[in-house]
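Incident review: delayed structure delivery

Summary: a single-chain prediction request sat in the queue longer than the usual turnaround. Root cause was a stuck worker, restarted by the on-call engineer. No data loss occurred. The affected request and its eventual output are reproduced below so the record is complete for anyone auditing the incident later.

Affected input:
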Amino acid sequence: MDRYTAVRSFVLVAEKGSFAAAALVEGVTPVVMGRRLTALERRLGVQLLHRSTRGLKLTELGERFLESSQQLLHDFDAAEDSVSSGRSAVRGHLVVSAPAAFGRRHVGPHAAAFREQYPDLRLSFNFTDSVADLVREGYDVGIRIGEVRDPNYVALRLFPNQRVVCGTPAYFEQYGVPRSPEDLADHNCLAFNLQGGQQQGWTFAREGKLFAVRVDGNLACNDGELLYDWVKQGLGVGWRSTWEIQAELRRGELVTVLDEFALPGYDIQAVYPQQRYLPAKVRAFIEFLRGVYNVEGYWGEEG
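Output delivered after worker restart:
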């Protein structure tokens, strides 16, 4: 193992607070990270970390070595960047995950234009309503709708979005308008089933606090586009993203309710694993989509 790898591994473990989190960034197992640190300590002849069932803690020497190691890595990266042109080239194979309906409507259709700018790049898409493990399943970047809680991922907003309860005017005329999220117990709620990953219910905000309401209905599935179609048919109410229903709202075919309880932000985001060097192909794809989505009138033109 070379010294750079050893020092970088130590810095990652110290910054992430665990071998598992550091291993995720490096793309190796926690056991490998542990062996790297043990080898580094053996070579230096000092203990850098206290290991216990409660976690990891830097020794006094470890804290001093961390500061100098971080500066060393920064200087190394700066020197490499100053002479490397390859990192700025957009080439290779970009593997992208996105929600099924969103991917079909707002990712896939832009593939040709993106490749016109970067003809040396190959693209692979996987559109699914299941949340993909980007690292384990080998994705370079994922498009997510809503909050990203995993600290091992970086999330960049592409466009603002909200999640709202909606239905047809005819449905609400027949069954009434819910005045609070709890009133949804009296409505036919069209939601994802267990396979669709929405078993915790629909999430709302009240007085700055988030809470979930379990909903029930006579139709459920694991496909967001099918749920969207059922809502448009007036078969019940749905919890849909504003990006998805703009055209129907504009034409009056759908209306929203419980807007005062909507989550403050359920944004469209690009997500990728924490890493020291963000590949140029990932950066270019994110900036491309951000540019497309922020063109005036883009969302209103659909439908």
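Verification: The mean pLDDT is 88.
Action items: add queue-age alerting; document worker restart procedure.
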